[in-house]
Design a protein that fits this description.
336 residues; alpha/beta; Enolase-like, domain 1; TIM Barrel; two-stranded antiparallel ribbon; 12 helices; globular; Enolase-like_C_sf; magnesium; Enolase_C-like; Dipeptide epimerase
Length: 336
């Protein structure tokens, strides 16, 4: 990664990935599992899961539903490696049918305006990161420290751009959180993402009833089943392919969230252009876009939708939208 990625409870300088490819009748589909340690997956768990997968037993392609149901049922959890298989299968299907994935879901192509993420650093470093993000209309700022006001004040000396605030469960006391949110509502902030720990249901319910800004669930919203009670604690949800097991369930979550009147966001982990391009296929369903995970990567082996300023131009390229693959840019995990 170009810079250390520091949030409320951890910091990392890289992210383990598993990149896969599937072949069918002369076509190749690419997929990606991004596995930040906090979600409990790693290269070993991904490899063990893949050893249980046998797609050769299916003859139902191009209908992906039986394949994806089979993959999801192999073992609980393992959302990221399931997402890698889902992405690769969608890429394969789109190329086979000569259609972009968004067309498979009857969605339009869209020019998506993504935010740029500013992670936690000393105030002067965060201010410098803001200066470097001049092309972006929206900034996503990581908070969850004991000096959050100081960080925002440093940013506000540099810009008055709208801010997406992400506390990453870093605020523990709802009463302290509401006072900070009230102050942030006066600082041109758009929403607050995951202010309290994901299992603090009582605190989230209390906070949602009082917050002057929308609260967006991230760590607290993983898969479709979590939407059943989401509106009790959040005004919106952040859908990520690595949490939802891929494109199909992410699409279903976004559609259901809209039906429930929740605001929608498409986010990402630290990812290559493979997973970012896949998520962008669903961008027309999102109120907010946070798909900059590939922009902070130094060894992205894929070329997908090239961000023009802060705009991701989703086009009609078949599959998930990849234009080029360069395996030489991959650093084997054991070499790090």
């Amino acid at each position: 990664m170009r810079h250390p990625f520091r949030i409320a409870d951890n910091v990392r300088t890289g992210t383990p990935l598993m990149l896969i490819k599937l072949s069918y009748k002369g076509y190749t589909g690419y997929g990606e599992a991004s596995m930040p340690p906090r979600y409990g997956e790693d290269l070993n768990t991904a490899q063990l899961f893949l050893e249980k997968v046998d797609l050769n037993t299916f003859d139902c392609f191009p209908d992906l539903s039986p394949l994806l149901s089979y993959i999801d049922g192999i073992a609980p959890g393992n959302a990221a490696i399931k997402a890698a298989l889902d992405i690769a299968l969608h890429d394969l299907l789109g190329k086979f049918l000569k259609q972009p994935v968004h067309q498979l879901y009857h969605l339009p192509a869209a020019s998506l305006v993504t935010a740029q993420t500013i992670t936690i650093e000393a105030p002067e470093i965060m201010a410098q990161r803001v200066k470097e993000a001049t092309a972006f209309r929206y900034l996503k700022v990581k908070l969850g420290t004991s000096h959050d006001r100081t960080l925002i004040e440093a940013i506000r000396r540099e810009t008055d751009k709208p801010l997406y605030i992400d506390a990453n469960q870093g605020w523990k006391d709802p009463e302290i959180a509401i006072r900070l949110i009230e102050w942030l509502s006066e600082q041109n902030c758009v929403f607050i993402e995951q202010p309290l720990p994901k299992n603090d249901y009582e605190g989230m319910y209390w906070l949602k009833e009082r917050s002057p800004l929308p609260l967006i669930g991230d760590e607290g919203i993983q898969r479709f089943a979590d939407l059943e009670t989401a509106s009790s604690y959040y005004h919106g949800i952040n859908v990520k392919l690595m949490k939802s097991t891929g494109i199909k369930e992410a699409f279903e979550m976004l559609m259901e969230a809209k039906r429930l009147g929740l605001q929608t966001m498409i986010g990402c982990m630290s990812e290559t252009s493979c997973a970012i391009s896949a998520a962008a296929q669903l961008g027309s369903l999102a109120d907010y876009i946070d798909l900059d995970g590939n922009l902070g990567v130094t060894n992205d082996p894929f070329t997908g939708f090239i961000c023009k300023g802060d705009v991701i131009p989703v086009d009609e390229t078949p599959g998930i939208g990849l234009k080029h693959v360069d395996w030489n840019r991959i650093v084997p995990f054991e070499a790090l």
